[in-house]
Amino acid sequence: MPRTATIERNTKETKINVTLNLDGSGKGEITTGIGFFDHMLEGFTKHGFFDLTLQVNGDLQVDGHHTVEDTGIVLGQAIREALGDKAGIKRYGSFLLPMDDALCLCAIDLSGRPYLAFDCTFSTERVGELDTELVREFFYAVSYSAGMNLHLRMLDGTNAHHMIEAMFKAFAKALDEAVSYDERIQGVLSTKGSL
Asked: Is the overall model pTM greater than 0.85, yes or no?
Protein backbone atom coordinates (compact mmCIF):
# COMPACT_ATOMS: atom_id res chain seq x y z
CA MET A 1 0.00 0.00 0.00
CA PRO A 2 1.36 3.45 -0.86
CA ARG A 3 2.19 5.59 2.16
CA THR A 4 0.02 8.66 1.71
CA ALA A 5 -1.41 11.52 3.76
CA THR A 6 -3.84 14.34 3.07
CA ILE A 7 -3.78 17.37 5.34
CA GLU A 8 -5.92 20.51 5.34
CA ARG A 9 -5.01 23.54 7.44
CA ASN A 10 -7.01 26.76 7.49
CA THR A 11 -6.08 29.88 9.47
CA LYS A 12 -6.67 33.60 9.04
CA GLU A 13 -3.27 33.76 7.32
CA THR A 14 -3.24 30.70 5.05
CA LYS A 15 -5.45 27.99 3.60
CA ILE A 16 -3.50 24.87 2.66
CA ASN A 17 -4.39 21.50 1.16
CA VAL A 18 -1.68 18.88 0.65
CA THR A 19 -1.63 15.27 -0.47
CA LEU A 20 1.70 13.44 -0.25
CA ASN A 21 2.61 9.98 -1.49
CA LEU A 22 6.03 8.84 -0.25
CA ASP A 23 5.99 5.97 -2.76
CA GLY A 24 5.27 8.06 -5.84
CA SER A 25 7.08 8.72 -9.07
CA GLY A 26 7.92 12.42 -8.80
CA LYS A 27 4.66 14.01 -9.94
CA GLY A 28 3.77 17.41 -8.56
CA GLU A 29 0.87 19.85 -8.79
CA ILE A 30 2.05 22.79 -6.72
CA THR A 31 0.69 26.32 -6.35
CA THR A 32 1.81 28.53 -3.47
CA GLY A 33 1.65 31.96 -5.12
CA ILE A 34 5.45 32.28 -4.91
CA GLY A 35 6.93 31.12 -8.19
CA PHE A 36 10.44 30.31 -7.01
CA PHE A 37 9.06 28.42 -3.98
CA ASP A 38 6.88 26.36 -6.36
CA HIS A 39 9.99 25.59 -8.40
CA MET A 40 11.86 24.39 -5.30
CA LEU A 41 8.99 22.16 -4.18
CA GLU A 42 8.73 20.73 -7.70
CA GLY A 43 12.44 19.85 -7.47
CA PHE A 44 11.86 18.23 -4.06
CA THR A 45 9.02 16.17 -5.53
CA LYS A 46 10.91 15.11 -8.66
CA HIS A 47 14.22 14.20 -7.03
CA GLY A 48 12.67 12.43 -4.03
CA PHE A 49 10.25 10.42 -6.20
CA PHE A 50 7.36 11.73 -4.12
CA ASP A 51 3.94 12.62 -5.48
CA LEU A 52 2.82 15.96 -4.09
CA THR A 53 -0.36 17.94 -4.63
CA LEU A 54 -0.18 21.27 -2.84
CA GLN A 55 -2.53 24.26 -2.97
CA VAL A 56 -1.72 27.29 -0.81
CA ASN A 57 -3.67 30.52 -0.55
CA GLY A 58 -1.74 32.83 1.75
CA ASP A 59 -1.69 36.49 2.76
CA LEU A 60 0.95 37.44 0.21
CA GLN A 61 -0.23 41.05 0.40
CA VAL A 62 1.56 41.06 3.78
CA ASP A 63 4.65 39.08 2.71
CA GLY A 64 5.64 35.48 2.03
CA HIS A 65 6.42 34.46 5.61
CA HIS A 66 3.11 32.83 6.56
CA THR A 67 2.82 31.04 3.21
CA VAL A 68 6.31 29.52 3.40
CA GLU A 69 6.29 28.67 7.11
CA ASP A 70 2.77 27.19 7.08
CA THR A 71 3.60 25.13 3.98
CA GLY A 72 6.51 23.69 5.94
CA ILE A 73 4.24 22.88 8.89
CA VAL A 74 1.70 21.07 6.71
CA LEU A 75 4.32 19.22 4.64
CA GLY A 76 5.99 18.05 7.85
CA GLN A 77 2.64 16.83 9.19
CA ALA A 78 2.02 14.94 5.93
CA ILE A 79 5.45 13.27 6.10
CA ARG A 80 4.83 12.19 9.68
CA GLU A 81 1.34 10.85 8.95
CA ALA A 82 2.37 9.04 5.75
CA LEU A 83 5.20 7.26 7.61
CA GLY A 84 2.79 5.64 10.04
CA ASP A 85 4.60 3.49 12.62
CA LYS A 86 7.91 3.67 10.65
CA ALA A 87 8.29 -0.10 10.69
CA GLY A 88 10.96 -1.35 8.29
CA ILE A 89 12.30 2.06 7.20
CA LYS A 90 16.00 2.91 7.16
CA ARG A 91 15.33 5.94 9.40
CA TYR A 92 18.57 7.69 8.41
CA GLY A 93 19.37 9.36 5.13
CA SER A 94 22.06 11.67 3.84
CA PHE A 95 23.10 13.20 0.56
CA LEU A 96 25.86 15.46 -0.73
CA LEU A 97 24.47 17.37 -3.70
CA PRO A 98 26.34 19.62 -6.15
CA MET A 99 24.46 22.33 -8.06
CA ASP A 100 26.89 24.31 -10.19
CA ASP A 101 28.85 26.44 -7.67
CA ALA A 102 26.81 25.15 -4.71
CA LEU A 103 27.54 22.05 -2.65
CA CYS A 104 25.01 21.06 0.02
CA LEU A 105 25.09 18.34 2.65
CA CYS A 106 21.77 17.12 4.07
CA ALA A 107 21.41 14.49 6.80
CA ILE A 108 18.15 13.23 8.32
CA ASP A 109 17.12 11.05 11.25
CA LEU A 110 13.40 10.23 11.42
CA SER A 111 13.73 9.78 15.16
CA GLY A 112 10.52 11.51 16.24
CA ARG A 113 12.67 14.14 17.95
CA PRO A 114 12.67 17.47 16.10
CA TYR A 115 15.87 19.42 15.55
CA LEU A 116 17.21 21.69 12.83
CA ALA A 117 20.84 22.60 12.23
CA PHE A 118 21.03 25.08 9.35
CA ASP A 119 24.40 26.40 8.20
CA CYS A 120 24.04 28.71 5.21
CA THR A 121 24.43 32.41 4.56
CA PHE A 122 22.90 33.97 1.47
CA SER A 123 24.43 37.03 -0.18
CA THR A 124 21.07 38.30 -1.49
CA GLU A 125 17.78 38.99 0.25
CA ARG A 126 15.53 37.53 -2.45
CA VAL A 127 15.45 35.01 -5.26
CA GLY A 128 12.49 35.77 -7.45
CA GLU A 129 9.63 36.45 -5.04
CA LEU A 130 11.09 34.33 -2.22
CA ASP A 131 12.86 36.01 0.71
CA THR A 132 16.01 33.96 1.28
CA GLU A 133 15.61 34.16 5.09
CA LEU A 134 12.41 32.13 4.70
CA VAL A 135 14.36 29.08 3.51
CA ARG A 136 15.45 28.38 7.08
CA GLU A 137 11.91 29.01 8.34
CA PHE A 138 10.57 26.41 5.90
CA PHE A 139 13.02 23.70 6.93
CA TYR A 140 12.53 24.52 10.62
CA ALA A 141 8.77 24.06 10.24
CA VAL A 142 9.18 20.80 8.32
CA SER A 143 11.61 19.34 10.86
CA TYR A 144 9.48 20.18 13.88
CA SER A 145 6.17 19.08 12.36
CA ALA A 146 7.61 15.85 11.00
CA GLY A 147 9.59 15.09 14.16
CA MET A 148 12.85 14.76 12.27
CA ASN A 149 16.43 15.63 13.06
CA LEU A 150 17.52 17.65 10.02
CA HIS A 151 20.97 19.01 9.26
CA LEU A 152 21.57 21.25 6.25
CA ARG A 153 25.04 22.59 5.60
CA MET A 154 26.15 24.62 2.59
CA LEU A 155 29.74 23.59 1.98
CA ASP A 156 30.27 25.89 -1.00
CA GLY A 157 28.34 28.33 -3.13
CA THR A 158 27.95 31.93 -4.22
CA ASN A 159 24.72 31.99 -6.25
CA ALA A 160 21.64 31.99 -3.97
CA HIS A 161 19.42 30.34 -6.59
CA HIS A 162 21.84 27.43 -6.89
CA MET A 163 22.33 27.19 -3.13
CA ILE A 164 18.62 27.03 -2.34
CA GLU A 165 17.97 24.56 -5.14
CA ALA A 166 20.81 22.36 -3.88
CA MET A 167 19.20 22.38 -0.42
CA PHE A 168 15.78 21.30 -1.63
CA LYS A 169 17.20 18.56 -3.85
CA ALA A 170 19.60 17.29 -1.16
CA PHE A 171 16.68 17.22 1.29
CA ALA A 172 14.62 15.21 -1.21
CA LYS A 173 17.37 12.65 -1.79
CA ALA A 174 18.13 12.25 1.92
CA LEU A 175 14.44 11.89 2.80
CA ASP A 176 13.95 9.34 0.01
CA GLU A 177 16.72 7.25 1.56
CA ALA A 178 15.42 7.64 5.13
CA VAL A 179 11.85 6.56 4.26
CA SER A 180 12.94 3.60 2.12
CA TYR A 181 12.55 0.05 3.37
CA ASP A 182 15.29 -2.39 4.32
CA GLU A 183 14.12 -6.01 4.51
CA ARG A 184 16.64 -6.70 7.29
CA ILE A 185 14.82 -4.33 9.66
CA GLN A 186 12.29 -6.04 11.92
CA GLY A 187 9.88 -3.49 13.41
CA VAL A 188 11.56 -0.13 13.86
CA LEU A 189 15.29 0.61 13.74
CA SER A 190 15.71 1.56 17.40
CA THR A 191 16.93 -0.16 20.55
CA LYS A 192 14.00 1.53 22.32
CA GLY A 193 11.50 -0.39 20.19
CA SER A 194 9.70 2.75 18.98
CA LEU A 195 10.35 5.94 17.04
From this structure: yes
